[in-house]
Amino acid sequence: MTSSMYHSATGTQSPHCIHAIGIGRTGMAYIEALLRTGEIEDLLQDQRATFAAMIVDIGDQDMGVVTDYANSFKKRLESRGIPSDRFQFQAMALPVPPKAEFFEGMNRTREFLKLEYPRYYWNPNFESYVPHKYQLPEAGNHFPRAVAKGIYANAYYAGERPMDVALRSFVDQVEKATLPSIVLVAFGMAGGTGSGMVVDLARHLSNVKLGRRIPVIGIGQLSHSGDDAGTHNNATQYTTLNDLDCMLDDDKNAGVTAVWGDLYRSPFTGGFFVVNPEQSWQRLTAYTTTGEKEVRQNFKQMVTNRFVADSFMRFAVMEHGRVLFRTMRPAGFTGAPHETLSAKSRNWTLFDVAKLSHPGVQVLPGEAGSKWDAVLAQWIDFMPKYGGLKDGFKTDYAEVHVHASRDMGFDLISKGFKDLISKQYLLENDSTYQTSNYEFFDALTAYANVILPGVAKTDLHAFWDSQANYDKLDWETKLNEHAWLIDIGPMLSEPAIRFEGMAGECIWGCACWVVVPYDQLRGDKLPPPNRKVIMEEGIAMMTKTVVKTPGGDAKKPAKAHA
Q1: Which end of the chain is less packed: N or C, by CB atoms within 10 Å?
Q2: Which are the contacts of 434, defined by CB distance < 8 A and separation ≥ 6?
Q3: Which residue, 350, 351, 389, 344, is CA-closest to 248?
């Protein structure tokens, strides 16, 4: 395995191998999308390259399509004479254990943690973090985050440890590459399985198996208004956003690691994309009300999620990962340590799939181009409404990737986005905007990937709407919506019992807590207004270490000597 190579003087870097893990139904859609791209197999023509892909879910009911694509991918490699050992695919369908077996694993949590933390404090107050009266649903149903976490823990620590074996095999395939690699971990932030498992899977992958040697990039997809009532901006999404905030924000993460150790350092060493699917949903459903309601609804959900996943993965594999790598540099990731300055609470990067047209919706094949222009302009203007960000968000960098047919007019679309993004989201005077145009294979579809670094969770409408739904729950239901740290004791999204002003109520009534101010976790105290302010503060702190030249006066220019 080779680490990322970037030449600071020229701004060039080598191609990257892209490897990926998808957790839950939403995460698996991203792996399916990656397997559909042709760029991965093009890269595998290079004998230095490998490709590892894994899907993880509770049960195998949603794995068939992804597995079929994996088998087809192998055949495509064979047809091109590419050795099959350069590709590895694993489908980890975790069973729902019998209740007695599940709670035996829950009761062994301290023993499991001792495997990772030799100095782990054996808490005498420990009880299962999933209440014993809880009835496990069958595979295919919704699983709360805590329960999904418990099922993952059993698969990782107990018996033959199939998840541990699978992650080791995944890493072995990554390390066979002699090109640098990037690992993507995709999941849905409102789904209990993906968001419940990712907090431990990403930690085991990045901080344990890979040893933080290569970039691991998180891809968390927000819910959209077309999701089921129990999914859209639900309590699950709120606690997930809080968990991720305490990973991505260096200050909050330092508070966690100060108490619980370095294995809780953020596993997303390459950064984190929060993916917004709302405009894709709105665009698809505009003017499409025909057909049987339930069938139509399921179809629209499937098409939206697949389109968003496809859009992201087409972006990820551009130029064999070079575009992805370059995109994360302005966000403060993938640079050398001396080039990296953290945006702390604003370490999130928004990836908004702004869909502009859909086949058969509003404009039909053969209609006048002027009608296309009007529709495209209309949906460009919808971006702030469906972009997921609260009014007032500003950043210093924006990147837009336009995908359209040549007949739609790139100039119109590109100018429309530049004008809108510059006015709506960019700081005046000292900001950078970049756009790229790509011809799309479907002559009736146009969309843009709008990439905005410097986002905080409090900039997201989803955070506040999900918080309101979380606040309606009783204590026990809230408990089941937690995942990160819950096995150690803190219920992160609640205030600490014994330490006023801090987060992390101990579920056993003991003294567990997290060194994170609760008002920051709730959003009662907002982060600095933009990323530029945070970075300027960081630079100011570093300049305090500058010392005067011995014998000189820092306020006066040195005298010239003959």
Answers
A1: C
A2: 398, 399, 400
A3: 344
Quote the tokens at residue 542. 């570093």
Two tokens, residue 433 = 């905007």
Q: Beta strand 87-94 with 51-58: parallel, antiparallel or unpaired?
A: parallel
Of 190, 110, 102, the residue nearest 152 (C-alpha): 102
Of 464, 451, 457, residue with least CA distance to 527: 457
- From the list 257, 94, 278, 117, the residue with the least C-alpha distance to 190 is 278
403 forms bridges with which residues in the sheet? Answer: 438, 447
Lowest mean pLDDT among 65-74, 312-321, 399-408: 399-408
- Looking at residue 293, its pLDDT comes to 65
The structural domains of the chain, with segments of one domain joined by +, span 6-285+293-317+325-352
| 212-240 exposure pattern, b = at least 16 Cβ within 10 A, e = fewer | ebbbbbbbbbbbbebbeeebbbbbbbbbb
Report the distance separating Cα 168 and Cα 87, nearest Å.
15
Q: Does domain 6-285+293-317+325-352 have CATH number 3.40.50.1440?
A: yes
Integer Cα distance of 157 and 109 in angstroms: 9
User: Do 460 and 353 meet the contact criterion of CB atoms below 8 Å apart?
Assistant: no
d(CA 200, CA 484): 7
Please state the three-class secondary structure of 255-299 as a single string: HHHHHHCHHHCCCCCCEEEEEECHHHHHHHHCCCCCCCHHHHHHH
Higher pLDDT, 537 or 27: 27
Q: What is the pLDDT of residues 94-141, one digit of tens each?
A: 999 999 999 999 999 999 999 888 778 888 889 999 999 999 999 999
Distances 502 to 339, 479, 490, 497 between C-alpha atoms, Å: 33, 18, 11, 9
DSSP output for 535-558 = HHHHHHHHHTT--PPTT--TTSPP
> Shortest CA distance to 397 belongs to which of 340, 333, 488, 329?
329
CB-CB contact of 105 with 136 (8 Å): no
Reading the block at residue 220, the tokens are 């968390």
Interval 344-375: pLDDT, tens:
999 999 999 999 987 766 666 666 667 778 88
Per-residue tokens: 518: 């609760």
Q: Could you count the other beta carbons within 10 Å of the beta carbon of residue 278? A: 26
Residue 186's DSSP bridge partners are 22, 219
Residue owning tokens 């050398």? 336
Q: What is the mean pLDDT of the chain?
A: 90
Closest among 344, 260, 262 to 515, alpha carbons compared:
260
Task: Give the angle 390-394-399 at the CA atoms, nearest 5°.
Answer: 105
